[in-house]
């Protein structure tokens, strides 16, 4: 802790994120906690499994021709009445659940990452502009942020989703569902980034290095992107990790509520929605395995977020 | 103090007008209202007449003002899918949602605050570690999964609790139906309320713990200990009191979001509340209901915010003293 503190006090600017990431403290704190290492490994396995889904999944769940209705509702391989072809059983349309989960994992991760990128990009950009420009630009951006903060993110995402559905043609709803979800979730999350970045920008813009950059005649855009941005990214990374977990939950929730991805292109949430219909008829595996995958994914991302927050916050040590 | 309240009230009205304008532009520009209201066999002349009657040919600003005026009197027009006034539809489902949200709020506060305090005071005890682990699971489990888990356990396996609906309700006056007075009503409430409370409870617990740890490090706590005060006096009279000040703000907002999150719980448990109505309206592009629900949630948050702000000032003497300087 002393090293980080000293740096913050003596230097004109705190060490950049890259410098802090290179710092041994971070690697050491990662390795010192078994939970964090386990969470990191599990998250890595899930991400690789999701990305490699087309390579490792035995069947293609999106291809109706590859699935047979006669195979529907087969129990998992290890349960009574299981079929050796289906490791985790099949759903009501005869889709191999193991393949569907791998593909679902892929979709959940992609939507999560893309929406975090979108929300982060919008939020960081607006935060930088608001903090640097000040005046009416600042108060306008922050007013909008205040109004949006009045509503929980999930509600904003639901509303954006509903409006998008109303505006788009019914016929291509299925093709646009993915993009609509990314936009709805991304736009519901920008406020947190904007507020944090605005705060740090207002501090940074009065520092000597920014004054110097201004004196040698750099454009505001250049100062913001090349000089201030690297110095305000630390908290952004923490928010992004925690938001990744929330984005994955939001996507799953929207799909579960039936306003996310259609059953033909199932994410984990859609699979759980399908499985819930079979809770009382005894086909427990349809809901159990996707739920388990979702819970493990979110838990591991959350654990990483917790660790990152503590590791990058010198006050907590 | 009065000036502060007046200023906050005006700011709140500003937020409501902004949200009202968003709701108006949804109503007016997302899809064509006339198209949604009439059947296929309505003639063009009749459509034009309806358009004129609804005032859709007036200038946008007149329409917006009219919309706001109607909204202020809870008149949101007629639902596209049910062909009934939106206010009646929402009014009929409001008691179910509010009762659920009320029980869930109480549950999350009564469990969350003591757990947070305990976890902060006994940081390394086994029970605190258990709380921490539980809270991480609570935050990581999406609300709908908690619900499905509870249904699997208590309805499918054990058969103790009903998995859907409100049970038997008793009518109180013309506007309110309650599930509090019947056994089946109370039994139906247990699982949805727990599901809804769990996520908020973990948030409150984590927040209280973090704030309390922060406060316990403050100098005045060390001085209190040096003065020889008993541990319980330090913890509960000095530390807890200061912990609760920032906690109030966030808890207030959390309680507001319980109503919004009830959309999910209501879907899992087929709870006949406003959230279900809102979800149906999204699936069927029923803009009047979406607009009305948006305004209702906004109103609730604005009121909660206002109450929290006023509470904040009356609890924290430092804020009272510096009131003139802040919030220009």
List the main descriptive attributes of the protein structure presented here:
heterodimer; A: 317 residues; mainly alpha; 14 helices; 0% strand; disordered N terminus; B: 328 residues; two-stranded antiparallel sheet; 13 helices; 75% helix; globular
Q: Give the distance, in angstroms, between the N- and C-terminal Cα atoms of chain B.
A: 14 Å
* Major beta sheet summary of chain A: none
Number of strands of chain B: 2
Summed up, the helix count of chain B is 13
Q: Globular, elongated, flat, extended or rod-shaped: what is the shape of chain B?
A: globular
N-to-C SSE string of chain A, H for helix and E for strand: HHHHHHHHHHHHHH
Q: Kindly state the mean pLDDT of chain B as a whole number?
A: 80
Query: Could you describe the largest sheet of chain B, including whether it forms a barrel?
Result: 2 strands, antiparallel
Quickly count the helices of chain A: 14
Helix content of chain B: over 70%
Query: How are the strands ordered across the major sheet of chain B?
Result: 1-2
Rg of chain A: 23 Å
Rg of chain B (CA only): 24 Å
Q: Helix amount of chain A, in percent?
A: over 70%
Structural class of chain A: mainly alpha
Mean pLDDT of chain A: 78
Terminal-residue CA separation of chain A: 7 Å
Uncertain residue ranges of chain A: 1-12
> What fraction of residues of chain B sit in β-strands?
under 5%
Strand fraction of chain A: under 5%
Shape descriptor of chain A reads elongated
């Amino acid at each position: 802790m002393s090293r980080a503190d000293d740096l913050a006090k003596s230097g004109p600017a705190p060490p950049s994120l890259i410098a802090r990431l290179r710092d041994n403290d971070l690697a050491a704190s990662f390795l010192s906690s078994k939970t964090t290492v386990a969470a990191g490994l599990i998250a890595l396995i899930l991400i690789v499994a999701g990305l490699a889904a087309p390579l490792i999944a035995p069947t293609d769940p999106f291809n109706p021709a590859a699935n047979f209705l006669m195979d529907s509702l087969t129990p998992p391989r290890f349960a009574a009445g299981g079929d050796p072809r289906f490791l985790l059983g099949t759903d009501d349309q005869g889709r191999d659940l193991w393949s569907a989960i791998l593909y679902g994992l892929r979709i959940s991760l992609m939507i999560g990452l893309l929406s975090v990128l979108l929300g982060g990009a919008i939020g960081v950009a607006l935060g930088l502009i608001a903090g640097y420009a000040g005046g009416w630009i600042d108060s306008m951006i922050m007013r909008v942020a205040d109004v949006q903060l009045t509503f929980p993110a999930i509600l904003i995402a639901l509303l954006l989703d509903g409006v998008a559905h109303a505006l788009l043609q019914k016929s291509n709803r299925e093709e646009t569902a993915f993009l609509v979800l990314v936009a709805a979730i991304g736009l519901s999350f920008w406020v947190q980034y904007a507020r944090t970045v605005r705060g740090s920008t207002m501090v940074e813009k009065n520092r000597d290095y920014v004054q110097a950059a201004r004196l040698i005649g750099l454009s505001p855009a250049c100062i913001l992107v090349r000089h201030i941005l690297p110095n305000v990214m630390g908290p952004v990374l923490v928010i992004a990790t925690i938001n990744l977990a929330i984005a994955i939950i939001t996507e799953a929730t929207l799909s579960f509520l039936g306003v996310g991805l259609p059953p033909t292109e199932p994410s984990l949430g859609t699979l759980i929605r399908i499985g819930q219909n079979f809770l009382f008829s005894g086909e427990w595996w349809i809901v159990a395995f996707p739920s388990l995958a979702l819970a493990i994914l979110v838990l591991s991302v959350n654990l990483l977020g917790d660790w990152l927050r503590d590791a990058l916050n010198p006050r907590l040590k | 103090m009065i000036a502060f309240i007046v200023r906050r009230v005006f700011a709140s009205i500003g937020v409501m007008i902004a949200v009202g304008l968003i709701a108006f532009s949804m109503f007016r520009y997302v899809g064509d209202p006339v198209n949604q209201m009439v059947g296929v066999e309505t003639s063009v002349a009749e459509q034009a007449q309806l358009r004129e009657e609804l005032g859709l040919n007036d200038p946008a600003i007149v329409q917006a003002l009219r919309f706001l005026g109607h909204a202020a009197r809870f008149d949101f027009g007629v639902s596209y899918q049910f062909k009934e006034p939106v206010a009646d539809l929402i009014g009929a489902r409001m008691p179910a949602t509010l009762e659920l949200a009320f029980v869930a709020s109480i549950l999350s506060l009564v469990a969350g605050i003591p757990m947070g305090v305990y976890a902060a005071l006994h940081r390394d005890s086994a029970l605190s570690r258990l709380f921490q682990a539980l809270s991480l699971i609570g935050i990581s489990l999406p609300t709908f999964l908690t619900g499905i888990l509870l249904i699997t356990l208590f309805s499918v396996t054990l058969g103790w609790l009903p998995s859907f609906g409100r049970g038997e309700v008793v009518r109180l006056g013309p506007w309110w139906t309650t599930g509090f007075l019947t056994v089946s009503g109370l039994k139906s409430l247990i699982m949805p309320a727990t599901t809804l409370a769990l996520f908020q409870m973990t948030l409150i617990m984590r927040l209280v713990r973090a704030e309390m740890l922060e406060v316990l490090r403050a100098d005045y706590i060390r001085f209190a200990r040096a003065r020889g005060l008993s541990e319980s006096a330090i913890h509960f009279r000095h530390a807890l009191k200061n912990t609760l000040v920032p906690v109030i703000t966030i808890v207030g907002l959390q309680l507001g979001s319980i109503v919004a999150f009830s959309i999910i719980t209501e879907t899992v448990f087929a709870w006949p509340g406003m959230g279900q109505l809102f979800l149906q309206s999204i699936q069927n592009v029923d803009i009047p209901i979406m607009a009305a629900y948006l305004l209702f949630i906004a109103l609730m948050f604005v009121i909660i915010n206002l109450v929290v702000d006023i509470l904040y000032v009356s609890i924290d003497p430092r804020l009272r003293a510096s009131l003139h300087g802040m919030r220009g």
